[in-house]
Design goal:
The complex is a heterodimer of chains A (332) and B (232). Chain A has 332 residues and is of the alpha/beta class. Chain A has two domains: 4-75, no CATH class; 102-119 and 152-297, Rossmann fold (3-Layer(aba) Sandwich), CATH 3.40.50. Chain A is 43% helix and 14% strand. Chain A has twelve helices and nine strands. Chain A has helices at 9-15, 17-25, 37-43, 46-52, 56-75, 119-128, 175-185, 191-205, 221-235, 253-262, 274-279, 299-323, and strands at residues 83-87, 100-104, 108-112, 139-142, 160-164, 240-244, 266-270, 282-287, 290-296. In chain A, strands 5-6-7-3-8-9 form a six-stranded mixed sheet, sandwiched between helices. In chain A, strands 2-1-4 form a three-stranded antiparallel sheet, with no helix packed on it. The relative contact order of chain A is 0.11. By secondary structure, chain B is α/β, with parallel strands linked by helices. The mean pLDDT of chain B is 90. Chain B starts with a strand and ends in a 51-residue tail after the last helix. A seven-stranded parallel sheet of chain B has the order 3-2-4-1-5-6-7, sandwiched between helices. The chains are: A alpha/beta (332), B alpha/beta (232). At the A-B interface, α5, α6, β5, α7 and α9 of A face α6, β7 and α7 of B.
Chain lengths: 332, 232
């Protein structure tokens, strides 16, 4: 690539529109199309740089760093995450954690344990790709190997996406604008296709339908959760999805899990709900900051899951009766 | 002694993040001290003291807190060294977003939160654009998509900084941030050192206590708004 500073404003606008966008973020709008960017930046008054809070050299350095990252993002040379291995450290009292746990794409693992037992610490260890340098002494391997420490700071290589009950949309946009904004930040080509697919899938998960033009802030709790899950499944770069307490959120949890599994996510679920816990292939029991047990869901438990689901459906039927103004005098 | 300057808009979670960092430092036996620069009042010294670290508070009152910070940081650095600290954390609120509290050769951190909205990063000046580490907080209450878009916007505003997510409530990410703080260079003195960028300037009649409004009362460094004809 020819030095960015030697290219004319017109050429840059035509070939590298990110440059104009970057400059506009700094309040700079070059209008003299014929001259080179470097020459244009030289002409900008010192006072203007003072006002925007960055000098010419700083601006050029940042612009070059930004363009470098953009091109890295497009060529996506980062190694794909196929598995994550958690190698045990020790619990809060220093007792060794006898565990070596491999999490593969498309698997669902639940995490159980009392509040404060260390669930978020486990996630933090994965997110940070701990190398025995966190309070738990755990080590995390990616694809069976020690990851490059620089990847800790890469936005594209963030291992964990989180979904929790407390999360809300704060942006003032419609559903489609919102998803499009996310897609654009990921440099995805077929934005409009992805957007409609995300909305379609989210509607499939939500109890009550919503449209592309609904403002995200007026979605119900269940609709929000459904949109967050569909969006994470399709657009988040993170291979691991942590779901924190999605019970009673008015969405089809089974469909939600199967969507994430279909999109090859490594799903971790912190939960106290037996139905969710048994939907997972295995569960980690956390106590005093350490994983004390890994339980593979047994055949008997899987049978019981069917029974539990029928309880759940009966409760759901009562809820529907209640909503439609009926009396609850007979338990189905 | 290591020095770290931490700044960020009000209520972005600076103090909560630092409390997490201090807890982590305490558990590894590192002697940490805190400086809190604020405008009118602060209770944060109580919080820091409760964590068992020595604290100094500076209230800038009617002065620009940024100017107040730079005029006092040297004294505070000497205090920290005399206290025998390993690391001194200097927290200052960035009130006008054009703040520029970062010093060349001193680890510079900016704390901003996900609730500020995706257009905010570009509205923050040297405090963000010249930071080495940008800490993003309140990620537990916004959607994953907004977190990702926000981080992307932060990177556009400062492509060279390391971006870290810290949860001020659970402390998730704080010990990782502490490990980065410990890589800060040693700062034994600041005499002759330079700010990374000039601070917001002001030297006009209002700086000197003028309260009357009107052209005839305006003296010194005064800037005029450029009013434009709205397209009808």
């Amino acid at each position: 690539m020819k030095n960015i500073l030697e290219q004319s404003i017109a050429d840059l606008n035509a070939r590298t529109p990110e440059v104009a966008q970057f400059l506009a973020d700094h309040g700079l709008v070059p209008e003299e199309e014929g001259i080179a960017l470097g020459a244009w930046l030289d002409r900008v008054n010192e006072e203007v740089y003072e006002d925007i809070g960055i000098d010419r050299d700083g601006l050029v350095e940042n612009l070059e760093a930004f363009l470098r990252q953009q091109s890295l993002l497009c060529s996506s040379t980062l190694p794909e995450v196929l598995s994550i291995t958690v190698i045990g450290g020790h619990d809060k009292s220093g007792k060794p954690e006898q565990v070596s746990l491999s999490l593969v794409r498309g698997s669902v693992t639940s995490i159980v344990g009392p509040t404060g037992s260390g669930k978020s610490r486990l996630l933090a260890d994965i997110e940070w790709m701990a190398q025995r340098d966190t309070p738990t002494g755990r080590a995390i391997l990616v694809n069976g190997e020690v990851p490059d420490p620089e990847l800790r700071f890469s936005l594209e290589y963030k291992l964990v996406a989180q979904l929790s009950q407390n999360m809300n949309f704060v942006m003032d946009t419609t559903v489609s604008e919102f998803v499009a904004m996310h897609a654009e930040s990921r440099m995805i080509d077929n934005v409009s296709e992805v957007v409609s697919e995300v909305i379609r899938q989210a509607n499939f998960l939500a109890g009550e339908p919503f449209s592309a033009t609904t403002p995200v802030t007026s979605l119900s709790g269940g609709q929000s959760r459904a949109l967050m899950i569909a969006d994470t499944a399709f657009l988040s770069s993170s291979p691991v999805v942590l779901i924190d307490e999605i019970e009673n959120a008015g969405i089809d949890r089974k469909k939600a899990l199967s969507l994430l599994v279909r999109k090859e996510k490594i799903v971790l679920m912190a939960t106290h709900d037996p139905i969710l816990a048994l939907m997972a292939e295995r569960r980690l029991v956390i106590k005093n900051g350490g994983v004390v047990r890994v339980i593979e869901t047994t055949d008997k438990e899987k049978e019981n899951l069917t029974v539990l689901e029928s309880f759940d459906n009966r409760l759901l039927a009562l809820r529907t009766l209640l909503r439609s103004g009926e009396l609850i005098e007979q338990i189905p | 002694m290591k020095l770290v300057t931490i700044s960020g808009p009000p209520s972005s979670g600076k103090t909560a993040v630092l409390a997490g960092v201090i807890r982590s430092m305490n558990s590894s036996g590192i002697r940490t001290g805190a400086l809190k620069y604020d405008c009118l009042a602060t209770d944060d010294d109580i919080l820091f003291r409760a964590l068992g670290v020595p604290v100094q508070v500076g209230l800038s009152g009617n002065l620009c807190p940024d100017h107040y910070f730079v005029s006092n940081i040297e004294e505070c650095l000497k205090w920290g060294i005399a206290e025998g600290l390993d690391i001194l954390l200097s927290e200052s609120a960035g009130l006008c977003n054009r703040c520029s509290p970062h010093i060349k050769g001193v680890l510079a951190v900016c704390v901003i939160d996900n609730l500020m909205g995706v257009t905010t990063p570009k509205k923050i000046g040297p405090m963000l654009k010249y930071a080495d580490i940008v800490v993003i907080t309140k990620g537990d209450i916004v959607s994953q998509a907004e977190r990702e878009v926000f981080a992307f916007q932060v990177r556009r505003a400062n492509p060279k900084a390391r971006i870290m997510h810290v949860n001020g409530i659970t402390g998730q990410g704080a010990s990782e941030l502490a490990s980065q703080f410990l890589k800060a260079p040693e700062t034994e003195q600041l005499d002759g050192e330079r700010l990374r960028f000039s601070m917001p300037a002001a030297l006009c009649s209002y700086c000197l206590g003028e309260t009357r409004i009107g052209m005839e009362h305006q003296l010194g460094n005064v800037k005029r708004i450029k009013l434009r004809q709205e397209a009808s």
